[in-house]
């Protein structure tokens, strides 16, 4: 989905709020919530992809203002409700106030076809396909060309895995893009390496025939 | 922060919302207390940047280990007793040189090799870093205190699959010949993310 979480290349942001050797946690509840969502994953209540997608489904206004662990908490609570473990009313009664949750999910999708296998050194084009569900295709590479550095491991296809849709595990590729190609005339020269699922790619020679 | 307009009613404080989830998980028999105890211990004692520092120090002093690390980071980490979650199927070690600088980000969320280099700090998960470091890498690094020469090439690694990354920083020349145990002390989490270099490099 073209959500608020898809931050790569967005403009208008100021300096990174950097503090060398910054602490990971600030308050007790943050570490507890971090442990609880991991526990729910280990119990098999939901996958990491589903967890990530529930964060992405937060109202943009909420996403932008919530701290990182508030996003974790919101995802965990949303999925507990969606899986039928608790109700929103129970959460709000226990919390003593409103408990904002993420918006409902759009349907997932299985592996895209045709599905090509790529070689190191091959010029590839990222498919330009819109999709409202979970995806690990950052929008800043959509429709762009890069070079396959090498094939990397196969993983569950996130666009399916977050939604409980059946799909094959897919090879991923280390694809190198030039920042100058991603944002012509308005970027610092660099190579940007992105891990790209096979479904998201097509041979660059296929471009003329569309996506 | 005031979230009061998000869902209409007055939003419960985040501490109370967290406590509500914990209480309801307890009520459902999910045994959250034990999970929290384990999770807190892992975060504080197990998932620490010293793990990555030990890997780096070993790579600096043992050329054969360095080669195994560059070939299969997860297996090399396991040699030293460091594990990764099952869904992190691979660890890529990215070696900095004088002419090449690697830096890691997750533009979509917060993915890191957290069992190896430690859980990510706030700034790594914040909007500014995720939005800007892919597009304005040299500028962002300079703003963060790392002013790289124009001759140094930059590679930015966006963690979009469950393959994980760690940066092997350049060893400071004055530390050549130091024992591994002493080298471990100088390697920082930020240098393994790639937003800083070690002194003298």
Give the rounded overall mean pLDDT of chain B. 95
Radius of gyration of chain A: 19 Å
Q: Round the Cα radius of gyration of chain B to an integer and report it.
A: 20 Å
CATH superfamily of the largest domain in chain A: Nitrile hydratase, beta subunit
* Contiguous uncertain segments of 5+ residues of chain B: 1-6
Q: Count the E strands of chain B.
A: 4
Q: Number of DSSP helices of chain A?
A: 7
| Low-pLDDT windows of residues of chain A | none
Biggest interface reads:
A-B, 84 and 82 residues
Look at the helices and sheets of chain B and give the structural class.
Answer: alpha/beta
The major pleated sheet of chain A works out as: 5 strands, antiparallel
Order of helices and strands of chain A: HHHHHEEHEHEE
* Alpha-carbon distance between the two ends of chain B: 41 Å
Major sheet: arrangement of strands of chain A: 4-3-2-1-5
Largest sheet of chain B: 2 strands, parallel
Characterization of this structure:
The complex is a heterodimer of chains A (211) and B (201). Chain A is an alpha+beta fold and 211 residues long. Chain A folds into 2 domains: 1-99, Nitrile hydratase, beta subunit (Cyclin A, domain 1); 123-209, SH3 type barrels, CATH 2.30.30. Chain A contains 7 helices and 5 strands. In chain A, strands 4-3-2-1-5 form a 5-stranded antiparallel beta sheet. In chain A, helix 1 (28-42) packs parallel to helix 4 and helix 2 (48-56) packs across helix 4. Chain B has 2 domains: 14-45, no CATH class; 48-193, Alpha-Beta Complex (Nitrile Hydratase, Chain A). Chain B has helices at residues 14-27, 32-46, 49-61, 63-71, 73-79, 114-117, 122-125, 127-132, 137-143, 180-184, 189-193; strands at 90-95, 100-105, 153-158, 163-168. In chain B, helix 3 crosses helix 4. Chain B is globular and about 55 Å long. Residues 1-6 of chain B have low confidence and may be disordered. The interface between A and B is large, with 84 and 82 residues.
């Amino acid at each position: 989905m073209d959500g608020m979480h898809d931050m790569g290349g967005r403009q208008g942001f100021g300096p990174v709020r950097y503090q060398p050797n910054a602490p990971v946690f600030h308050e007790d509840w943050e570490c507890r919530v971090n442990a609880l969502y991991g526990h729910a994953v280990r119990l098999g209540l939901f996958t990491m992809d589903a967890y990530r997608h529930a964060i992405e489904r937060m109202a943009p206004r909420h996403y932008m203002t919530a701290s990182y662990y508030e996003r974790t908490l919101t995802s965990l609570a949303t999925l507990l409700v969606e899986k039928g473990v608790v109700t929103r009313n129970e959460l709000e009664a226990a919390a003593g106030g409103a408990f904002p949750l993420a918006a409902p999910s759009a349907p997932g999708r299985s592996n895209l076809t045709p599905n090509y296998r790529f070689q190191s050194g091959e010029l590839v084009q990222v498919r330009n396909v819109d999709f409202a569900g979970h995806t690990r295709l950052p929008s800043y590479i959509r429709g762009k060309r890069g070079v396959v550095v090498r094939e990397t491991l196969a993983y569950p296809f996130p666009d399916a895995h977050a939604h409980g849709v059946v799909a094959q595990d897919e090879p991923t590729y280390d694809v190198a893009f030039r920042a100058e190609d991603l944002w012509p005339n308005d970027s610092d020269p660099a190579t940007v390496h992105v891990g790209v699922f096979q479904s998201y790619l097509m041979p660059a020679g296929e471009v003329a025939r569309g996506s | 922060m005031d979230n009061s307009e998000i869902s209409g009613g007055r939003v419960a404080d985040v501490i109370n919302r967290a406590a509500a989830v914990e209480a309801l998980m307890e009520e459902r028999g999910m045994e959250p207390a034990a999970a929290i105890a384990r999770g807190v211990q892992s975060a504080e004692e197990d998932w620490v940047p010293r793990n990555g520092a030990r890997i780096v120090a070993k790579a600096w002093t043992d050329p054969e280990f360095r080669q195994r690390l560059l070939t299969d980071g997860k297996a090399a980490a396991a040699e030293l007793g460091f594990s990764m979650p099952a869904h992190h199927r691979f660890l890529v070690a990215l070696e900095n040189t004088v002419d090449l600088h690697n830096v890691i980000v997750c533009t979509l969320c917060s993915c890191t090799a957290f069992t190896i280099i430690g859980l990510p700090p706030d700034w790594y998960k914040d909007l500014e870093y995720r939005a800007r470091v892919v597009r304005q890498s040299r500028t962002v690094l300079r703003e963060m205190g790392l002013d790289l020469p124009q001759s140094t090439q930059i590679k930015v690694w966006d963690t979009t699959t469950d393959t994980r990354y760690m940066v092997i920083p350049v060893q400071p020349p004055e530390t050549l010949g130091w024992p591994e145990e002493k080298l471990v002390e100088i390697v920082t989490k930020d240098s393994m993310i790639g937003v800083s270099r070690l002194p003298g490099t």
